[in-house]
Amino acid sequence: MVNIVLFGKPGAGKGTQAEFLKEKYNLTHISTGDVFRYNLKNGTELGKQAQVFIDKGELVPDALTIKMLQDEVEKNPDTKGFLFDGFPRTVAQADALDEFLKTKGWEVTATVALEADDEILVQRLLERGKTSGRADDQDENLIRNRYQEYNEKTAPLIEYYKGQGKFFAVNGIGEISEVTQRLSLIIDKL
Questions:
Q1: What domains can you pick out in the chain, each with its CATH number?
Q2: What are the residue ranges of helices labelled H in 26-163?
Q3: What's this protein's family per the entry (predicted)?
Q4: Which of 89, 124, 153, 182 is catalytic?
Q5: Annotated binding site, which residues?
Q6: Is 128 a catalytic site residue?
Q7: pLDDT band at 154 (very low <50, low <70, confident <90, very high)
Q8: Count of alpha carbons within 13 Å of 8, Cβ hemisphere only?
Q9: What are 71-92's pLDDT values in tens digits?
Q10: Whether 128 contacts 11, CB under 8 Å
Q11: 134 catalytic, yes or no?
């Protein structure tokens, strides 16, 4: 079983790359963004609770995020592996993911970070916001707040996974196919 954590700042290309990687490596893609949107759209209890934080441009608390993720994993008992997109976002979530995967006899195989300059990412998100309908992609202040949250809460994951020998960084700027190739070079060696 190969379980890959794909992370990077909002707009770094996680969702785009995940689409290619899930097909190439036959992985079950779990995007916390998609899981959140499903729960929000369908008015689930977890979705209603998450909406309050999303509206402020804040990260959804760990307990809500972890419960949503566990529900998604349980839906795919026969998978060859998971591609976690946007989760974990904090060291506490990484610990919770490790503990949850252990109950299944699994572990995180590798963590790959898509790295890119903030100013490029802000422009990407503002462009995406023109068609996505997502309020958090249309307001530069909310975008920058998300980056501040990332720097404070998610960047420590680099050291967490480096300590496990499972961290890899990839330049997320360039043609989509170029970034996919960079990611594949790492994943093929796992």
A1: 2-178 (3.40.50.300)
A2: 32-41, 45-54, 62-74, 91-103, 118-132, 140-149, 156-163
A3: Belongs to the adenylate kinase family.
A4: 89
A5: 11-16, 32, 37, 58-60, 86-89, 93, 128, 134, 146, 174
A6: yes
A7: confident
A8: 23
A9: 889 999 899 999 999 889 889 9
A10: yes
A11: yes
